[in-house]
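Re: farnesyl diphosphate structure - here you go.
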Amino acid sequence: MADMVTPFHVGIIMDGNGRWAKKRLLMRPLGHRAGMKRMLSLIEHAFDRGVKELTLFALSTENLSRPKEELDDLFGLFRLYFTQHISTLLERNIRLRVIGDRSLIPQDIVRLIEAAERDTAAGERGLLTFAIGYGGRQDIVFACNKAVREGKEQTLESFAEKLSTGGMSAMDLLIRTGGEKRLSNFLLFEAAYAEICFSEKMFPDFTDEDFDAALIDYAKRDRRYGKLK
Ligand code: FPP
């Protein structure tokens, strides 16, 4: 993979945890747990492959209408992550950022997120972003309202800065696991020219090798950005 074009910014919609569990006659929380285990390894692998920005869709605004028991379980996993796994990011010099509406999630998790963002702020090797309580359309409206308050016409660049992803680069490669072929309100503005890779595998089954296959596929794509070559 040495001379390959590596995408700078990769996004992953980690879908299929529930179905993974159902297929094994397990409860859905066990699917999320298996997903989190897979995610931990995939984060390290992606940065080892030279990806500089990795954005993971952990909970959409719409997911917040799931039953309370499922949400409580997911919030439990977030608490576990933000208390036990930040040291790995520090060791690896990776900065953490969380995007999404923080008023929609428990405030003790918000405090853990703030601490993790502060502690990893100097990380220079890469940027790991979790989208939690995030919706792409809501984020665009939020940015529009900022622009209205500013009272100035916007350029693409100045508008992009007002999104919660402000300062990040546009997405190069978007991977969705779980067999569905849709964006589900993830990074709508930022993924305008992303190459998209859909995997039939449920997220807990999506291996490091599957990730590499997506990188190889990406390297073969002809990115024309609507122009003629
Ligand atoms: C979608 O699968 C997945 C989620 C809603 C949650 C994903 C969360 C993790 C992998 C853990 C994240 C941990 C941190 C710390 C950010 P689904 O439940 O929609 O699966 P289904 O489509 O098969 O029902």
